[in-house]
Amino acid sequence: MTVPRSGADHYLGLLKKVLTNVIYEDDRFPHWGLPDPGYEREARVTGFDWPTVAHTMVGLARLDNVQECLESVLADGVPGDFVETGVWRGGTCILARGVLSVHGVTDRTVWVVDSFEGIPTTDEGSNSLDQEMKLHEHNDVLAVPMKEVERNFERYGLLDDQVRFLPGWFKDTLPDAPIERVAVLRLDGDLYESTMDSLTHLYPKLSVGGYVIVDDYILPACAQAVHDFRERHGIEDELTPIDQVACYWRRSA
Q: Which residues contact 249 (CB under 8 A, 6 or more apart)?
């Protein structure tokens, strides 16, 4: 016998399928990990491809993680907002707003933080691992204008005053960002410097019991920034894998 799902569960499950477009199965942009175009369900579900149409590239497991972390802080009364640094087409933030909506939460904000110009160009003064990746060379795919992200929120009926945009390079916007308290901090800036900027300026605002999600932990530059920051601040909370790409931890103190 099939156990009936609640309306909220059904809505969020469908929202995640639409955001990843496992329904209409759009092609992907070729890149160094997957050099051929086309649709592969496993790559889409695990967030290994760069979709041509879907509103997120993070895959279903990482979207599940966002939902679980948000519902955990809501259940435990952990104060603060949802913040994502590096949003691409906005899909993960759209899910976050959907989670708040189905739970009737009206006093938390979804912060959409991005340059909306893609990945910053690295130079001789940049971290050596960032220089090796040369991700800025893919800005034809990775750069998504803020107006396009806003339209994506509108398509789901989720653009309102609980969604706030913070455009610009992290090094410029985060030091004085008007974000007061964070419950879930999701890092998706790819680079060492972007990851370190996000942690340096936003981790002090993360409530005890809140979560840090690291989307790009598979990338050596991002992983190094995470380890450097945790060592510098004596953070020993367990890093828990989400899938082959990402991890997260819960702040205990």
A: 211, 212, 235, 237, 238, 239, 240
